[in-house]
Fold these 2 entries.
Entry 1:
Amino acid sequence: MIADPYKVLGVSPNASDEEIKKAYRTLAKKYHPDMNPGDKEAERKMNEINAAYDQIKNPQPNAGGFGGFGSYTRYGSGFGGNYRADTDEELTALRAAMNYIKTSHFHEALNALSGVPETSRSGRWYYLSALANYGLGNRIIAKEHAETAVRMDPGNMEYRSLLNELQQGGTFYRSYSQGFPASNFGGNLCFWLCAANFFCRLCPCCYS
Amino acid sequence: MTLNYDMTFLILVLNSLNEPETVTGEERCIIRPCKPHSYLTAGITDYAADMNIALAYLNQLDNWHDDKNILSLIYAGILRKKYKEISLRYPRQCGAMEDCITRLSKLEKSGESCPDEGAKTFGEMMGEIFVLSEDRWSDTLRAMASSLGEFIYIMDAVLDLPKDVKKHRYNPLADLKKSGRSDEYFKEILTMLIGNCTIEFEKLPLVEDVSIMRNILCSGVWAKYELEQAKKARQKGD
């Protein structure tokens, strides 16, 4: 961790996204190892700049990719105490699934879950299924099952928190795309036609 | 499969990532500052064109295998030699394309009801195409392009859904539609997928042309969808 990543990039902590990216590019150009062959100090500086940029751009440390599934430990600790399964079979299946999820064996988790008949699937079942699907990158089914879990058990914050995480992309996008004329394709259509025309010249045939 | 605008986006992203920087009168880029910039720009446009041809070839070949469409065989024949060259130059990308197109074809034949399977496979292919060479940004590029691919795949499925249902053709969203999902539901899924893409996109240190790229992500990617929605609204109004 760098104490002040903004200082490393030479920008103020309330710098805009653009300023940060520009500052990063300028410094990366200056200290790039290819520009400073054999210079240990430049190499160290470059690593520091990279780390600072990553720290600003990915505030959660070690979050791998979008959402960072590694954060699953935030969920699922409260088995037992606050949860009662309807049947022993279900409880066994859900426990097994949870253990598989904790060790990132998502296929096995889904397998264990599939043993519970559809009619006796609880909110917990859908929650665990959402987690396992999320781990496998099945975003659509994960969202679907997280929504079902929340619907079946609206008071459960764990379920809500997972659903929020799954919807992070959509939430981000809605504010991100504000100000862009999403429903006004007029101006863009022109751009697309130009682009399509440009590529038709590169490509000897058209796709179906 | 229409990939024209995605290839435009590919060129814009890779060019911007390799943005030319003027250092003591010479043009240099950030990833390989030792190489002159003009070479790289041309390289990226050629690369996108190569990927386009490779996809066209594999797509036509797949059409021939599936439908025994003779025109597809002819097209594939024209592109075969060029494809061989490209696959020697970019074995990772072409390998992924061959693998993913085969898998997509299998999913279609088996009538896979989970839309994630196809979306992930198509995303994987896009991820490999967007990574020209492995470097510090490849993971982010891969994640961004995978989400974009997932979006494109589901968008295609949404747009084809009415036709596919009518003609009893495979559509990855058919089961969800049958269970009563609304247009709004599908739009929400699409928003989530393109949202994941934009999150990764914004992690890249892109400065040049960034407003064009944002415009594509926020508006351009919806162009066909909006056109269809407008058509639907008009039909309802009649």
Entry 2:
Amino acid sequence: MSLPVGADYLSILRHLVALYDTGVTEGFSRDDVVYVARLARLDLEPSEVDLYAAQLGSILDHVAAVTGLDTTAVPATAHPLELANVLRPDTPGPTLPRDEVLSQAPHAEGGRFRVPPILGEAP
Amino acid sequence: MSAVFEYPTSALEIARAVRAGEVRAREVVEAALERIASFDGALHCFLTVTADAALAAADAVDAVVAAGGDPGPLAGVPLALKDNLCTRGVPTTAGSRILEGWVPPYDATVVKVVAAAGAVAVGKTNLDEFAMGSSTENSAYGVTHNPWDPNRVPGGSSGGSAASVAAGLVPLALGSDTGGSVRQPASLCGVVGVKPTYGLVSRYGLIAFASSLDQIGPFAATVADAAALLDVIAGHDPADSTSLEVGLEPVSRQLEAGVAGLRVGVISDFLVDASPSCVAAVRAAAEVLSRAGAVVEEVAIPALMLGLSAYYLVAPAEASSNLARYDGVRYGLRVDGPDAAQMNARSRSKGFGPEVKRRIMLGTYVLSAGYYDAYYGQAQRVRTLVARGFGEAYEHFDVLIGPTSPTVAFEIGAKTQDPLAMYLSDLYTIPTNLAGHPAVSVPFSLSEGLPVGVQVLAPTLGEGPMFRAAAVIEHGADPGARGPIEPRLAGAVR
């Protein structure tokens, strides 16, 4: 799989993209995009739905190289360090000034964050 | 400015001269601000320049020197901060519209630590939105130009920090590296970029992208300057529960130790698909190490080639969780709606750019019911395979070398429509993050006028041998391949 001398970056990347193309996934439908966008609290324009269906399908197709590996005897790594719970003494310490924190909120009122109704009650 | 003192110069030379009273920190910082004023209109490395605060901090350093006190090891050294590091009272955007105008109420630990060491922060640098990208083109605030060729990207995501050092605007900068975001732009800009061992540098106040992969690291024009900055920022921080409690012997003291007897593996898997100039640089660097007394051999670590796929499942999964906090309630952009859920969705849709939305959706998908084990669980097991591949290699080698990036800097706009091609820029940097190891990119040679970096990789807390090898490689490198340079601005397109 060696490249010709003098190959430019675009041909190199096309070559790499081809290496990673597994073609094993079933792609990403528009319905998949709409479903995932709802879970992720994103409102997408119709044009965005089409774009992301194509792009996410292509990305998944390439990263799917790992899904075919037999890893039955391999433990998962969630984190590079083998950390147990890290605890500190339960003693009070300084906190950020409330007014300074609330000054950054889009809407604050009476020392609290103000939000629209959450469970459908009247505002 | 003292007649003998020229700017730009190395951080260590500035600190020495300021500490010795040969030049005032204010003069140095004024020179940095002048250089920023001259060049940054065309380069766009900085999103915010904090001139007044920097001059005040420089005066404070000078007052310590005048009083006979110790102004710190980086006294008077101008430094740039990637704009995903929180700075109290200074806007911090992470390159995103969703944080436009946000002023953090606290400093990141590294921001406090570098100030305590006498360094003077002069501003916040451009980045791909939330550090997601390899070109700095995903910033909501415009592209940064590569000082070697204004029509090319500086790499990313820490492109503003890398370019600011390459152009001699500042001798030091901080970035963050989740999959190569310090090393790849360092390679593309001809500067040194370090990704330290996971947990060596506190992440407190770093805006989170993928928490099990993120690590803050230094940029500098020389290996010695990068080592000096790493020695300052390394250390335990109770505010970061993943911060390591073990100390690291200062790397600055080990730079002259040489590589006699050091076992160096050349990762053969990284030489198959990289561009010929990047492969040639690695082979020449291997020869430099060999002549200096290292024992150099090729080693195949095929598991590393699985890293990219695992990364693009793990990192988006963590990102989708970390970025859930941008809900329009406590800070950042809000677009109102009839209820909280619609307010959340409208705010996020307006505030996030396309790459961030892609990664949030990819992460949400791989964590969703029915796909979790096939994608995310499998990626975590492959992460173990990557770490094991490294582990077996490090039974035989002290450090490994390879290309940092598969290519030199590419043209602005070349990959923006093809996210996958962009992701492949990080093919050789990602495995290090998955394993939590350190690595450094050292500028080595030029290819058609553009810098090529060589990467030195080491096991957990292997920064000492890694820097010894980096220093020897730097000594054998083409001195014309590294910054600071006079930026090339002709024909720059904004």
